[in-house]
């Protein structure tokens, strides 16, 4: 009988990231990039790796007889999947952003560093757009025009 068990850590290696993420992260498009990357990661049930909820297993465990301490085989599987998620992220960022994550070990570390480095600019930009929206409401510009202009502005 064949082993039909589901692996503890998925490893969708045949996935072409460029089919899912059309943007390279830069200082001006964090929110758009984040939306695309999270959609990819969530679609593969791997979000816990970037949020830190899927923690690495212990490096050592006891054998089936509880007599010897042995390397945990789940650690290699976890590490392989985490490196894949990290590669997806780093494949979708600009050289500028790559400088922020050089030397970081896990996908969670990379995600957190990018969030810290780029989300503040996006939030400031979002606030600026809201202010412009309020100004436009005062001069009675149609909302459809404001919405279209704002979307183009966000896209950079």
Automatic annotation (TrEMBL):
Native source species: Coptis chinensis
Q: Please, which domain of life does this record's source organism belong to?
A: Eukaryota
Name of the protein described by the UniProt record: Retrotransposon Copia-like N-terminal domain-containing protein
């Amino acid at each position: 009988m064949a082993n039909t068990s589901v692996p503890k850590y998925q490893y969708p290696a045949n996935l072409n990231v460029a089919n899912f993420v059309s943007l390279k992260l830069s200082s001006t498009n964090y929110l758009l990039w984040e939306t695309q990357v999270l959609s990819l990661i969530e679609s593969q049930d791997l979000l816990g790796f970037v949020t830190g909820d899927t923690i690495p297993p212990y490096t050592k465990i006891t054998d089936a007889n509880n007599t010897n301490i042995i390397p945990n085989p789940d650690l290699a599987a976890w590490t392989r999947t985490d490196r894949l998620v990290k590669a997806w992220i780093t494949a979708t960022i600009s050289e500028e952003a790559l400088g922020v994550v050089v030397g970081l070990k896990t996908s969670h570390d990379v995600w957190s560093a990018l969030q810290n480095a780029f989300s503040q600019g996006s939030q400031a930009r979002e606030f600026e757009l809201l202010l412009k929206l309020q100004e436009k409401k005062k001069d009675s510009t149609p909302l459809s025009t404001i919405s279209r202009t704002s979307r183009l502005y966000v896209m950079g």
